[in-house]
TrEMBL record:
Top-level taxonomic group: Bacteria
Protein name (Swiss-Prot/TrEMBL): N-acetyltransferase domain-containing protein
Family matches, as PROSITE patterns: GNAT
Domain N-acetyltransferase: residue ranges: 8-176
One Pfam family hit: Acetyltransf_1
CDD domains referenced in this protein's UniProt entry, alphabetically: NAT_SF
Length: 176
């Protein structure tokens, strides 16, 4: 007879179908804009659209017109150069899809895509209400980078680094 502790349910149910990460133009009518919410408009007011990257996670088993399952909004360096860094503004999963591991999947695929594009560090500056995203990032290896010497107005940041790549600044931070 097995004990109840031996029959634990997995923390996340596997998504049905094949998931695809894709970059879409960052604008208020873009797929994934509703998931990101007002952060997209705010970032587009403050940052040139050419420096914004909007990534969406879609399920290929769903109809083509179906809304994405999750989205992430980043800012990268100058558009004509290979970006060496990315600033993660937000990452969100659509409400009906919470608890299925899609935030982890989106983050894993996103970091792999950024590294392939030449990005070597990803930064996130947590604010009020970012505890869920901060926990997700920390579980993915981001760590506190406050000891990396950014200016006093950027004192509280987080990150992760791999030993072969050296950081250039500090925030929740991860080198790729």
């Amino acid at each position: 007879m097995s004990s109840p502790s031996n029959k634990r349910r997995p923390r996340y149910a596997a998504p049905s179908g094949t998931l695809l990460l894709r970059e879409v133009p960052a604008h208020t009518g873009a797929p994934g804009a509703r998931i990101i919410g007002p952060a997209l408009e705010r970032v587009l007011r403050e940052t040139p659209a050419a420096r914004c990257r909007l990534y969406v996670l879609t399920d290929l088993a769903r109809p083509v017109a179906a809304a994405p399952l999750a989205a992430a909004l980043l800012e990268t360096g100058a558009p004509r150069h290979v970006p060496r860094w990315a600033l993660l503004h937000t990452l969100a999963v659509a409400v009906p899809h919470h608890g299925r591991g899609l935030g982890h999947r989106l983050l894993d695929d996103l970091l792999m895509e950024l590294r392939a594009d030449g990005v070597r560090a990803v930064w996130f500056l947590p604010g009020p209400g970012d505890d869920g995203l901060r926990n997700l990032l920390e579980s993915a290896g981001f760590r506190d980078g406050t000891d990396r010497g950014l200016s006093p107005e950027n004192e509280r940041t987080y990150g992760y680094d791999e030993p072969e790549i050296r950081p250039w600044a500090a925030w929740l931070f991860r080198e790729l």
